[in-house]
Amino acid sequence: MDDDLRDLLMAWGGGTLEESRCETLLARLRTDPAFRRECARQIHMLGMLKVVQAPSPRWLRIEEELRSEPAPAEVSAGKGSPVEGRVMEALRAGAMVNRVRRLWWVPALSLGLVLAAGLWWGMRYRPTPPPVPLHLRETLGVVVQADEVVWDRGSTHRPHQDDLLEPGWLRLRSGRLALALFNGVRLYVEGPAAVQLRSLSHVYCEQGRLSVHVPPQSEITDFTIASPGAAIRDLGTEFGFNVSPDGSAEVMVFRGSAEASVLAPNGTTLRSEVLPAHAPVRIVPERGAIEPAALPPGRFVQPPRVEARPLQLSPEYARAVRAAQPWSYWRFEDASAGRIPNEMEGGPALIIRGEVRCREVGSGNRAAFFDSRRARSHLQTESPWIVPPGDYAVEFLFSSEQYKNSALVGLLTPEDQHLALVELTARDPEHLVHKPGTLRYVQRVPPATFGGVNLFSTRVFFPYRWHHIVAQCRNGRLEMYIDGALAAAADADRVQSVGPCHVLLGMLRHRPDPADDVRSLIGYLDEVAIYPHALSPEAIAWHAALAGCSEEDPQGSRQARR
């Protein structure tokens, strides 16, 4: 800071200066306009700080001061600003200390009033803040279904269908909620109930009736639901859990097994035992007892039947895909003789393996349903694709029934190595850091079983809802589009001479390592197309709109594409 400016501000704040020094500063103020303006600016800043800290600003005096301020035209005409004038006056008086103490509030409070008015205006008319990005939020899952829910008056968190779930209490007076957590756990809650979502591995029930589905331990290693006097550690099962206001609990395992514990008031385990299927018990914390009980299944919440939402596919969708000239296109309208025919002349059919059926998912439209709970269900081309060097694109629609690590579409070499893979994520794999409940697109050049360039979406997918996906390599850049919008992109090596690749749907690979890392899909795939070239952003948006997966008007998208 300039020495003259520092001395002047010191005097303005209450310090003393020699008379000769005052004369020097006065002379510079008369002859140096830039110095005068900087002095005024610094004094305004000091005043602003004092106004902010003042317990009771004198608003009437401020208003008078504002009325006396000259217009900008007067300042530009050489009349100067009031602050500059007061500085000059103070120096001429020679008694700077007392003068400063009397006048500091005038410019300060003037500026303070302007700032206060601006703050009031900004608080009243500020735009709605953008949503917090997914990677900065501690989200646990989504609300899949909400039926006639009446929230408790004291409930501050009242999510609706398709809302993200964050840690906290859910207090229902009545109604039913179906929740899907990102680790694959599904909770069905019936009111009156008070349930606290603490983390992906821990839920606390103060009161209410719950039904819980937990994936096998190969997919989730730890999940516990507790009450004031009991805890159930799931071992990969489905069970019902009723908690009464007095703290007692009832448990019935429908499938698999679970470890039940009775807890002391301090939360330590008094006793535990493994419960087999169809052997209901009552847990009484007061006696530290786990007692067999003749409880009918109807006493527990039965999971509701949730179906995939209808696919609103425009009749123009298939024509648009064919016009884009894919190498292969499968619509799943027919599955005769264990094969799905190719819509493109000369293209290979898909061979059905396991439990894959074509089901109606909308008016006049069918899709492939994968039920990997019974077998390793998947589809594979009967002959491979000779992947050309350069660009390619993979386009499809999917609807998953749960959050589960699930392979959707892959380009797989005869050596069981991936050139490209699009999959759903649930829990965090040990070797990757990302939010669960998202989509992953990986390309490996040359094909391999690990490594490569990964893309992860910054938004989650929703169970039982249709999503339109395009994963492509375009001009040396990987791109992943979800519902017509670019979700992630990164530079990557262009595909060179790769050789033949099969298209594999609904399963990771044929020889997974470890053997149980199959990543089978439970849900639907439809309208799968493989292109020997990339698609334009306009074409992708148009296709998503025609599939009913975008808010954009299909006609508007068509005009944009043209």
UniProtKB/TrEMBL annotation:
Transmembrane found in the keyword field: yes
Alphabetical list of InterPro entries matching this protein: ConA-like_dom_sf (IPR013320), Ferrdict_sens_TM (IPR012373)
Ranges in coiled-coil conformation: none
Name listed for the protein in its UniProt record: FecR domain-containing protein
Protein species of origin: Limisphaera ngatamarikiensis
GO molecular function: sigma factor antagonist activity
Gene3D superfamilies: 2.60.120.200
Keywords: Membrane, Transmembrane, Transmembrane helix
Source organism superkingdom: Bacteria
Taxonomic lineage from the root: Bacteria, Pseudomonadati, Verrucomicrobiota, Verrucomicrobiia, Limisphaerales
Residue intervals passing through the bilayer: 103-123
The UniProt record lists the keyword Membrane: yes
